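hey all, quick one before standup. I had two proteins in the batch that finished overnight and I want to keep them in one place so we stop losing track of which output belongs to which input. First protein below, input sequence then C-alpha coordinates straight from the run.
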Amino acid sequence: MSPLLLTKKMIKSEELQKIIEQYLLGTDKFIVELKVKAGNNIVVLLDGDTGVNIDDCVALTRHIESQYDREVEDYTLMVSSAGLGKPFKLLRQYLKNLEKEVEVELTDKTLIKGTLLTADKDKITVKVISKVKKEITEQDREIPFDLIKEVREVISFK
Protein backbone atom coordinates (compact mmCIF):
# COMPACT_ATOMS: atom_id res chain seq x y z
CA MET A 1 0.00 0.00 0.00
CA SER A 2 1.49 3.34 -1.02
CA PRO A 3 1.47 6.22 1.41
CA LEU A 4 -1.14 8.87 0.81
CA LEU A 5 0.49 11.93 -0.68
CA LEU A 6 -1.14 15.18 0.25
CA THR A 7 -0.46 18.12 -2.00
CA LYS A 8 -1.72 21.49 -1.02
CA LYS A 9 -2.58 24.23 -3.45
CA MET A 10 -0.37 27.32 -3.17
CA ILE A 11 -2.25 30.57 -2.72
CA LYS A 12 -1.16 33.25 -5.18
CA SER A 13 -0.61 36.65 -3.60
CA GLU A 14 -1.96 38.45 -6.71
CA GLU A 15 -5.24 36.50 -6.43
CA LEU A 16 -5.48 37.16 -2.69
CA GLN A 17 -4.74 40.86 -3.19
CA LYS A 18 -7.64 41.15 -5.66
CA ILE A 19 -9.97 39.41 -3.18
CA ILE A 20 -8.93 41.79 -0.38
CA GLU A 21 -9.08 44.93 -2.53
CA GLN A 22 -12.56 44.00 -3.77
CA TYR A 23 -13.68 43.51 -0.16
CA LEU A 24 -12.19 46.88 0.92
CA LEU A 25 -13.68 48.77 -2.03
CA GLY A 26 -15.82 51.67 -0.80
CA THR A 27 -14.17 51.75 2.63
CA ASP A 28 -11.28 53.88 3.87
CA LYS A 29 -9.22 50.75 4.57
CA PHE A 30 -6.22 49.70 2.47
CA ILE A 31 -3.52 47.04 2.31
CA VAL A 32 -0.14 48.14 3.62
CA GLU A 33 1.51 44.77 3.18
CA LEU A 34 0.51 41.34 1.93
CA LYS A 35 2.84 38.36 2.15
CA VAL A 36 2.18 34.78 1.20
CA LYS A 37 5.18 32.88 2.53
CA ALA A 38 6.21 29.27 2.07
CA GLY A 39 3.61 26.84 3.35
CA ASN A 40 0.78 29.28 2.62
CA ASN A 41 1.58 31.41 5.66
CA ILE A 42 -0.38 34.59 4.95
CA VAL A 43 0.25 37.95 6.63
CA VAL A 44 -1.96 40.96 5.87
CA LEU A 45 -1.23 44.39 7.34
CA LEU A 46 -4.19 46.71 7.09
CA ASP A 47 -4.55 50.45 7.60
CA GLY A 48 -7.31 52.99 7.16
CA ASP A 49 -7.64 56.72 6.81
CA THR A 50 -9.57 56.71 10.10
CA GLY A 51 -7.60 53.82 11.61
CA VAL A 52 -8.19 50.10 11.96
CA ASN A 53 -9.74 48.25 14.88
CA ILE A 54 -10.02 44.59 15.86
CA ASP A 55 -13.47 44.28 14.25
CA ASP A 56 -11.99 45.35 10.89
CA CYS A 57 -9.31 42.67 11.18
CA VAL A 58 -11.80 39.98 12.20
CA ALA A 59 -14.16 40.87 9.35
CA LEU A 60 -11.37 40.70 6.77
CA THR A 61 -10.13 37.41 8.24
CA ARG A 62 -13.61 35.90 7.91
CA HIS A 63 -13.93 37.17 4.35
CA ILE A 64 -10.60 35.60 3.33
CA GLU A 65 -11.52 32.35 5.07
CA SER A 66 -14.79 32.28 3.11
CA GLN A 67 -12.81 32.39 -0.15
CA TYR A 68 -10.43 29.49 0.51
CA ASP A 69 -10.97 25.89 1.60
CA ARG A 70 -8.53 25.00 4.38
CA GLU A 71 -8.70 21.35 3.28
CA VAL A 72 -7.40 22.28 -0.17
CA GLU A 73 -5.05 25.20 0.49
CA ASP A 74 -3.99 24.38 4.08
CA TYR A 75 -3.00 27.92 5.14
CA THR A 76 -2.36 30.03 8.19
CA LEU A 77 -3.66 33.58 8.25
CA MET A 78 -2.79 36.64 10.29
CA VAL A 79 -4.60 39.93 9.64
CA SER A 80 -3.58 42.90 11.76
CA SER A 81 -3.32 46.67 11.66
CA ALA A 82 -0.13 48.24 10.36
CA GLY A 83 0.32 49.35 13.96
CA LEU A 84 1.52 52.35 15.88
CA GLY A 85 5.22 52.85 15.79
CA LYS A 86 5.69 50.93 12.54
CA PRO A 87 7.45 52.69 9.66
CA PHE A 88 5.26 54.15 6.92
CA LYS A 89 5.33 52.15 3.68
CA LEU A 90 2.78 53.87 1.46
CA LEU A 91 2.21 57.50 0.42
CA ARG A 92 -1.35 57.12 1.72
CA GLN A 93 0.05 56.54 5.23
CA TYR A 94 2.03 59.77 5.00
CA LEU A 95 -1.05 61.65 3.84
CA LYS A 96 -3.20 60.35 6.70
CA ASN A 97 -0.53 61.48 9.16
CA LEU A 98 -0.20 65.08 8.01
CA GLU A 99 0.05 67.53 10.91
CA LYS A 100 1.29 64.76 13.22
CA GLU A 101 4.68 64.51 14.84
CA VAL A 102 7.06 62.13 13.06
CA GLU A 103 10.61 60.90 13.38
CA VAL A 104 12.53 60.65 10.12
CA GLU A 105 15.64 58.49 9.92
CA LEU A 106 17.81 59.38 6.97
CA THR A 107 20.01 56.93 5.11
CA ASP A 108 23.06 58.53 6.78
CA LYS A 109 21.52 57.70 10.23
CA THR A 110 20.55 61.35 10.96
CA LEU A 111 17.31 61.64 12.96
CA ILE A 112 14.90 64.49 12.30
CA LYS A 113 11.89 65.05 14.52
CA GLY A 114 9.08 67.39 13.55
CA THR A 115 5.57 67.86 12.23
CA LEU A 116 4.75 66.27 8.87
CA LEU A 117 3.45 69.11 6.69
CA THR A 118 3.28 67.65 3.17
CA ALA A 119 3.97 64.46 1.26
CA ASP A 120 4.00 63.60 -2.41
CA LYS A 121 5.52 60.86 -4.54
CA ASP A 122 8.99 62.46 -4.40
CA LYS A 123 9.43 64.03 -0.97
CA ILE A 124 8.04 65.02 2.41
CA THR A 125 8.18 68.35 4.23
CA VAL A 126 8.71 68.39 7.98
CA LYS A 127 8.50 71.44 10.26
CA VAL A 128 11.46 71.19 12.64
CA ILE A 129 11.46 73.27 15.81
CA SER A 130 14.85 73.89 17.41
CA LYS A 131 15.59 75.47 20.76
CA VAL A 132 19.07 76.85 21.35
CA LYS A 133 19.63 78.92 24.51
CA LYS A 134 16.03 80.08 24.89
CA GLU A 135 15.81 80.96 21.17
CA ILE A 136 13.23 78.93 19.27
CA THR A 137 13.52 78.58 15.52
CA GLU A 138 11.24 76.87 13.03
CA GLN A 139 12.40 75.46 9.75
CA ASP A 140 10.47 73.58 7.05
CA ARG A 141 12.72 70.84 5.68
CA GLU A 142 11.99 69.16 2.38
CA ILE A 143 13.36 65.64 2.39
CA PRO A 144 13.47 63.55 -0.80
CA PHE A 145 12.41 59.92 -0.37
CA ASP A 146 15.76 58.68 -1.68
CA LEU A 147 17.41 60.14 1.45
CA ILE A 148 14.88 58.56 3.84
CA LYS A 149 15.48 55.21 5.52
CA GLU A 150 12.18 55.25 7.43
CA VAL A 151 9.52 57.51 8.93
CA ARG A 152 7.43 56.72 11.99
CA GLU A 153 4.73 58.55 13.85
CA VAL A 154 5.92 59.72 17.24
CA ILE A 155 3.75 58.22 19.94
CA SER A 156 3.07 60.66 22.74
CA PHE A 157 1.23 60.03 26.00
CA LYS A 158 0.92 63.72 26.93
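OK second protein, same deal, sequence then C-alpha coordinates:
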Amino acid sequence: MNATKTKLLIVDDEWMIADSLSTMEEWAERNITVAGTADNGFSAIRFLQEQPVDLVITDIRMPDMDGLQLLQHIYEEYSNTKVIIISGYEDFACAKKALKYQAKGYVLKPIDTDELLEIVDGILRDAPDVVDLAEQEEEVPLTYHESIVKNAKQFVRDRLDQPLSLSDAAEHVNLTPHYFGQIFKNESGMSFTSYLTQTRMEKACELLKDPKLKIYEVCEKSGYIDAKYFSKVFQKTYGMTPNEFRTKRGAD
Protein backbone atom coordinates (compact mmCIF):
# COMPACT_ATOMS: atom_id res chain seq x y z
CA MET A 1 0.00 0.00 0.00
CA ASN A 2 2.82 2.40 0.77
CA ALA A 3 4.68 2.00 -2.54
CA THR A 4 2.48 4.72 -4.05
CA LYS A 5 0.40 7.52 -2.56
CA THR A 6 -2.10 6.12 -0.06
CA LYS A 7 -5.61 7.55 -0.44
CA LEU A 8 -7.56 8.18 2.76
CA LEU A 9 -11.30 8.82 3.29
CA ILE A 10 -12.49 10.24 6.63
CA VAL A 11 -16.11 9.59 7.65
CA ASP A 12 -17.66 11.43 10.62
CA ASP A 13 -20.87 13.40 11.05
CA GLU A 14 -19.10 15.83 13.40
CA TRP A 15 -17.51 18.23 10.94
CA MET A 16 -14.99 19.53 13.48
CA ILE A 17 -13.57 16.04 13.97
CA ALA A 18 -13.56 15.33 10.23
CA ASP A 19 -11.86 18.65 9.56
CA SER A 20 -9.32 18.12 12.34
CA LEU A 21 -8.39 14.64 11.08
CA SER A 22 -8.26 15.65 7.44
CA THR A 23 -5.82 18.51 8.07
CA MET A 24 -3.27 16.56 10.13
CA GLU A 25 0.25 17.26 8.91
CA GLU A 26 1.30 13.69 9.70
CA TRP A 27 -0.49 12.34 6.61
CA ALA A 28 1.96 13.98 4.23
CA GLU A 29 4.87 12.53 6.25
CA ARG A 30 3.44 9.07 5.53
CA ASN A 31 2.77 9.67 1.83
CA ILE A 32 -0.98 9.71 2.54
CA THR A 33 -3.37 12.04 0.78
CA VAL A 34 -6.84 12.78 2.17
CA ALA A 35 -9.06 12.03 -0.82
CA GLY A 36 -12.15 13.40 0.88
CA THR A 37 -14.57 13.36 3.82
CA ALA A 38 -18.13 12.06 4.27
CA ASP A 39 -20.72 12.60 7.00
CA ASN A 40 -22.35 9.13 7.02
CA GLY A 41 -22.08 5.66 5.54
CA PHE A 42 -24.22 6.35 2.48
CA SER A 43 -22.12 9.36 1.54
CA ALA A 44 -18.98 7.29 2.00
CA ILE A 45 -20.27 4.52 -0.27
CA ARG A 46 -21.14 7.03 -2.99
CA PHE A 47 -17.61 8.43 -2.67
CA LEU A 48 -16.05 4.96 -2.90
CA GLN A 49 -18.08 4.12 -6.00
CA GLU A 50 -16.57 7.11 -7.77
CA GLN A 51 -13.14 7.11 -6.18
CA PRO A 52 -11.87 3.97 -4.39
CA VAL A 53 -9.42 4.59 -1.54
CA ASP A 54 -6.85 2.54 0.35
CA LEU A 55 -7.82 3.53 3.88
CA VAL A 56 -11.02 4.65 5.63
CA ILE A 57 -11.23 6.16 9.11
CA THR A 58 -14.86 6.15 10.23
CA ASP A 59 -16.92 6.98 13.29
CA ILE A 60 -19.41 4.35 14.47
CA ARG A 61 -22.42 6.42 15.46
CA MET A 62 -23.73 8.39 12.49
CA PRO A 63 -27.22 9.05 11.07
CA ASP A 64 -28.78 6.97 8.27
CA MET A 65 -25.93 4.47 7.96
CA ASP A 66 -23.46 3.94 10.77
CA GLY A 67 -19.79 3.03 10.71
CA LEU A 68 -20.27 -0.68 11.33
CA GLN A 69 -22.67 -0.97 8.39
CA LEU A 70 -20.12 0.89 6.29
CA LEU A 71 -17.38 -1.43 7.53
CA GLN A 72 -19.41 -4.49 6.51
CA HIS A 73 -20.06 -3.01 3.06
CA ILE A 74 -16.35 -2.29 2.56
CA TYR A 75 -15.45 -5.79 3.78
CA GLU A 76 -17.83 -7.30 1.19
CA GLU A 77 -17.26 -4.95 -1.73
CA TYR A 78 -13.81 -3.37 -1.31
CA SER A 79 -11.61 -6.08 0.20
CA ASN A 80 -8.37 -4.15 -0.37
CA THR A 81 -9.58 -1.10 1.57
CA LYS A 82 -8.46 -0.98 5.21
CA VAL A 83 -10.77 0.48 7.86
CA ILE A 84 -10.05 2.04 11.26
CA ILE A 85 -13.04 2.56 13.58
CA ILE A 86 -13.34 5.51 15.97
CA SER A 87 -15.99 5.67 18.66
CA GLY A 88 -17.07 7.68 21.68
CA TYR A 89 -18.06 4.48 23.47
CA GLU A 90 -16.07 1.43 24.56
CA ASP A 91 -18.66 -1.10 23.42
CA PHE A 92 -17.47 -4.72 23.39
CA ALA A 93 -20.26 -5.80 21.00
CA CYS A 94 -19.20 -3.09 18.54
CA ALA A 95 -15.55 -4.03 18.92
CA LYS A 96 -16.39 -7.70 18.32
CA LYS A 97 -18.33 -6.85 15.16
CA ALA A 98 -15.47 -4.62 14.04
CA LEU A 99 -13.13 -7.60 14.44
CA LYS A 100 -15.51 -9.82 12.47
CA TYR A 101 -15.33 -7.48 9.51
CA GLN A 102 -11.56 -7.07 9.88
CA ALA A 103 -11.28 -3.49 11.09
CA LYS A 104 -7.59 -2.70 11.53
CA GLY A 105 -8.07 -0.61 14.67
CA TYR A 106 -10.61 0.64 17.21
CA VAL A 107 -9.80 4.07 18.65
CA LEU A 108 -11.84 5.76 21.38
CA LYS A 109 -12.77 9.44 21.45
CA PRO A 110 -11.33 11.84 22.37
CA ILE A 111 -8.95 10.60 19.70
CA ASP A 112 -5.36 10.02 20.75
CA THR A 113 -3.57 10.91 17.51
CA ASP A 114 -0.48 8.97 18.58
CA GLU A 115 -2.59 5.84 18.96
CA LEU A 116 -4.32 6.45 15.63
CA LEU A 117 -1.02 7.02 13.82
CA GLU A 118 0.43 3.91 15.44
CA ILE A 119 -2.36 1.85 13.87
CA VAL A 120 -1.91 3.58 10.51
CA ASP A 121 1.84 2.92 10.64
CA GLY A 122 1.15 -0.73 11.40
CA ILE A 123 -1.11 -1.01 8.35
CA LEU A 124 1.43 0.69 6.07
CA ARG A 125 4.38 -1.27 7.44
CA ASP A 126 2.83 -4.69 7.74
CA ALA A 127 0.81 -4.94 4.54
CA PRO A 128 3.66 -6.70 2.66
CA ASP A 129 4.31 -8.97 5.65
CA VAL A 130 0.80 -10.40 5.47
CA VAL A 131 1.53 -11.67 1.95
CA ASP A 132 4.84 -13.15 3.07
CA LEU A 133 3.16 -15.00 5.94
CA ALA A 134 0.47 -16.32 3.64
CA GLU A 135 3.08 -17.71 1.25
CA GLN A 136 4.69 -19.58 4.12
CA GLU A 137 1.39 -21.35 4.84
CA GLU A 138 1.62 -23.52 1.71
CA GLU A 139 -0.30 -20.95 -0.32
CA VAL A 140 -3.31 -21.00 2.02
CA PRO A 141 -4.21 -17.30 2.38
CA LEU A 142 -4.20 -15.85 5.87
CA THR A 143 -6.51 -13.08 6.93
CA TYR A 144 -4.93 -9.99 8.46
CA HIS A 145 -5.94 -11.08 11.97
CA GLU A 146 -4.68 -14.64 11.46
CA SER A 147 -1.32 -13.30 10.36
CA ILE A 148 -1.19 -11.03 13.43
CA VAL A 149 -1.77 -13.99 15.78
CA LYS A 150 0.67 -16.22 13.89
CA ASN A 151 3.30 -13.51 14.10
CA ALA A 152 2.67 -12.99 17.83
CA LYS A 153 2.87 -16.71 18.60
CA GLN A 154 6.20 -16.98 16.80
CA PHE A 155 7.40 -13.94 18.73
CA VAL A 156 6.54 -15.75 21.99
CA ARG A 157 8.19 -19.02 20.97
CA ASP A 158 11.39 -17.23 19.97
CA ARG A 159 11.65 -15.45 23.32
CA LEU A 160 10.33 -17.93 25.88
CA ASP A 161 13.40 -17.51 28.07
CA GLN A 162 12.75 -13.76 28.38
CA PRO A 163 10.19 -11.71 30.30
CA LEU A 164 7.21 -11.14 27.99
CA SER A 165 3.93 -9.26 28.27
CA LEU A 166 0.85 -8.47 26.23
CA SER A 167 2.30 -5.02 25.58
CA ASP A 168 5.54 -6.51 24.23
CA ALA A 169 3.67 -8.66 21.73
CA ALA A 170 1.33 -5.81 20.78
CA GLU A 171 4.30 -3.55 20.11
CA HIS A 172 5.87 -6.26 17.96
CA VAL A 173 2.80 -6.43 15.68
CA ASN A 174 2.31 -2.64 15.76
CA LEU A 175 -1.07 -2.61 17.52
CA THR A 176 -2.33 -1.15 20.77
CA PRO A 177 -2.40 -3.70 23.65
CA HIS A 178 -6.19 -3.50 24.02
CA TYR A 179 -6.91 -4.09 20.33
CA PHE A 180 -4.23 -6.78 19.98
CA GLY A 181 -5.66 -8.62 23.00
CA GLN A 182 -9.10 -8.65 21.36
CA ILE A 183 -7.74 -9.95 18.07
CA PHE A 184 -5.67 -12.66 19.79
CA LYS A 185 -8.58 -13.98 21.88
CA ASN A 186 -11.02 -13.82 18.97
CA GLU A 187 -8.70 -15.76 16.66
CA SER A 188 -7.12 -18.26 19.09
CA GLY A 189 -9.96 -18.80 21.56
CA MET A 190 -7.78 -17.93 24.56
CA SER A 191 -6.27 -14.81 26.03
CA PHE A 192 -2.68 -13.91 25.22
CA THR A 193 -1.69 -14.44 28.87
CA SER A 194 -3.19 -17.95 28.85
CA TYR A 195 -1.35 -18.78 25.63
CA LEU A 196 1.92 -17.47 27.05
CA THR A 197 1.53 -19.54 30.23
CA GLN A 198 0.56 -22.66 28.26
CA THR A 199 3.57 -22.29 25.97
CA ARG A 200 5.93 -21.72 28.90
CA MET A 201 4.58 -24.83 30.65
CA GLU A 202 4.99 -26.97 27.52
CA LYS A 203 8.57 -25.73 27.26
CA ALA A 204 9.17 -26.56 30.91
CA CYS A 205 7.93 -30.13 30.40
CA GLU A 206 10.42 -30.61 27.57
CA LEU A 207 13.26 -29.19 29.64
CA LEU A 208 12.41 -31.37 32.65
CA LYS A 209 13.16 -34.44 30.53
CA ASP A 210 16.83 -33.46 30.74
CA PRO A 211 18.05 -34.75 34.15
CA LYS A 212 21.14 -32.55 33.94
CA LEU A 213 19.09 -29.37 34.28
CA LYS A 214 18.35 -28.07 37.77
CA ILE A 215 14.79 -26.95 38.50
CA TYR A 216 15.90 -23.32 38.74
CA GLU A 217 17.52 -23.64 35.31
CA VAL A 218 14.28 -25.03 33.86
CA CYS A 219 12.51 -22.12 35.52
CA GLU A 220 14.81 -19.54 33.91
CA LYS A 221 14.77 -21.16 30.48
CA SER A 222 10.96 -21.15 30.61
CA GLY A 223 10.93 -17.41 31.21
CA TYR A 224 10.31 -17.30 34.96
CA ILE A 225 12.44 -15.41 37.49
CA ASP A 226 10.96 -16.78 40.71
CA ALA A 227 11.37 -20.57 41.08
CA LYS A 228 8.61 -20.75 43.73
CA TYR A 229 6.16 -18.99 41.45
CA PHE A 230 7.20 -21.23 38.56
CA SER A 231 6.52 -24.34 40.68
CA LYS A 232 3.14 -22.93 41.74
CA VAL A 233 2.06 -22.31 38.14
CA PHE A 234 3.37 -25.72 37.06
CA GLN A 235 1.45 -27.50 39.83
CA LYS A 236 -1.72 -25.59 39.01
CA THR A 237 -1.35 -26.60 35.35
CA TYR A 238 -0.39 -30.26 35.72
CA GLY A 239 -1.46 -31.19 39.25
CA MET A 240 2.07 -31.95 40.36
CA THR A 241 5.32 -30.11 41.10
CA PRO A 242 8.18 -30.01 38.58
CA ASN A 243 10.11 -32.51 40.72
CA GLU A 244 7.12 -34.86 40.86
CA PHE A 245 6.72 -34.57 37.09
CA ARG A 246 10.39 -35.44 36.59
CA THR A 247 10.14 -38.42 38.95
CA LYS A 248 7.02 -39.66 37.20
CA ARG A 249 8.71 -39.34 33.83
CA GLY A 250 11.62 -41.41 35.11
CA ALA A 251 9.28 -44.13 36.35
CA ASP A 252 7.35 -44.34 33.06
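Flagging for whoever picks this up: Residues 113-136 form the longest helix (24 residues). Residues 6-126 form a domain with the Rossmann fold fold (CATH 3.40.50.2300).
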